[in-house]
Design a protein that fits this description.
alpha+beta; Endonuclease III, domain 1; Nucleoside Triphosphate Pyrophosphohydrolase; five-stranded mixed β-sheet; two-stranded antiparallel ribbon; 9 strands; 41% helix; DNA repair; Adenine DNA glycosylase
Length: 348
């Protein structure tokens, strides 16, 4: 109890004033947790506000078109979160008449809801003693208790969950969970935490053994693969262009992109021009080719780095049924890599 008492007292003094902390509405809590997965509060807050403004209830989100949801999500990355968000909203609206399950066991069955999110909703909204374990919690517990089990291993996940469950305040689970996450976010930070003002420094094994920088332990992931993306930005004299919707599973599913030519290595102007001579979109039409960026734009994803070039193809007319006005591009959901290009490029 001493650990939870110290933690909750610290939280009562130091917690940030965030909108999802002023509600017990499962929809709002669920929305905040999905947005904040792999996203910092500073970046996620505007998205949270935008989603609640546009979709104030789960029914509003369920009735939205997926492309609208993806467009509003644009820039957050990990777009499967947005697709799962939309799918789950439909399930809640149809199968549960808008009411979220009120316990961890049923919450975790929802699409896109894992142990962490189910625990957060169950504790905050329904006062269930289900401990949350995220990156912040891993860091706090591994340092304080000197746990060396890798946090990204199945053994580590089980061990830290068990430890958090032992520590959680059964009478105040919501406060405990929010407190330990907040403590990791603003006090027990990944780099250069101010341990000298930490209320746990006397008992913290990492601090007392000078191992703050060593914990938590994480197994190194495989080296990211390099991929070479070449986007064909077609522009006609009547200001038409063409984007394709990415189908199937994989990155950017259901988002739009310019026609893509992937090469094994970075290509120069002459070799690329030769490569695209037989491209479906370029047969039987004359075009003027230019390169937008001489140096590739490197877009880093979790398991791959995309070395990207945008090739501008000026044509007299686009003989493609799906061609759209360049003004319509802004309404399409696109990856942030494409979005940044659209924002900076002059289509006139």
């Amino acid at each position: 109890m001493q650990f939870s008492n110290i933690l909750i007292h610290w939280y009562s003094i130091n917690k940030r004033d965030l909108p999802w902390r002023n509600t017990k509405d499962p929809y709002a809590i669920w929305l905040s947790e999905i947005i904040l997965q792999q996203t910092q509060v500073k970046q996620g807050l505007p998205y949270y506000n935008a989603f609640l403004e546009k979709y104030p209830t789960v029914f509003d989100l369920a009735n939205a078109d997926e492309s609208e949801v993806l467009k509003l999500w644009q820039g957050l990355g990990y777009y499967s979160r947005a697709r799962n968000l939309h799918s789950t909203a439909k399930g809640i609206a149809i199968n549960f008449k808008g009411d979220f399950p009120n316990n961890y066991k049923d919450l975790i069955k929802l699409k896109g809801v894992g142990d962490y999110t189910a625990s957060a909703i169950a504790s905050i909204c329904f006062n269930e003693a289900a401990a949350v374990v995220d990156g912040n919690v891993y860091r706090v517990l591994s340092r304080y208790f000197g746990v060396e089990t890798p946090i990204n291993s199945s053994k580590g996940a089980k061990e830290f969950k068990g430890l958090a469950q032992e520590l959680i305040d059964k009478e105040r689970p919501a406060e405990f969970n929010q407190a330990i996450m907040e403590f990791g976010a603003i006090q027990c930070t990944p780099k250069t935490p101010n341990c000298h003002i930490c209320p746990f420094n006397k008992g913290c094994l990492a601090f007392n053994n000078k191992r703050i920088d060593e914990l938590p332990v994480k197994i190194k992931s495989a080296k990211a693969k390099k991929k070479y993306f070449n986007f064909l930005v077609l522009i006609s004299e009547d200001s038409k262009t063409f984007l394709q919707k990415r189908e199937g599973r994989g990155i950017w599913q259901n988002l739009y992109q310019f026609p893509l030519v992937e090469t094994k290595v970075e290509v120069d102007f002459d070799s690329f021009k030769e490569t695209i001579e037989s491209h479906t979109f370029l047969k039987q039409i004359d075009y003027d080719l230019s390169l937008y960026n001489d140096a590739p734009i490197i877009h880093k994803l979790s398991h791959q780095h995309l070395y990207t070039k945008f090739w501008i193809l000026k044509v007299q007319k686009l003989i493609i049924d799906e061609a759209i006005s360049v003004d319509e591009i802004q309404s399409l959901p696109v990856p942030i890599l494409i979005g940044n290009f659209i924002e900076n490029f002059n289509f006139e």
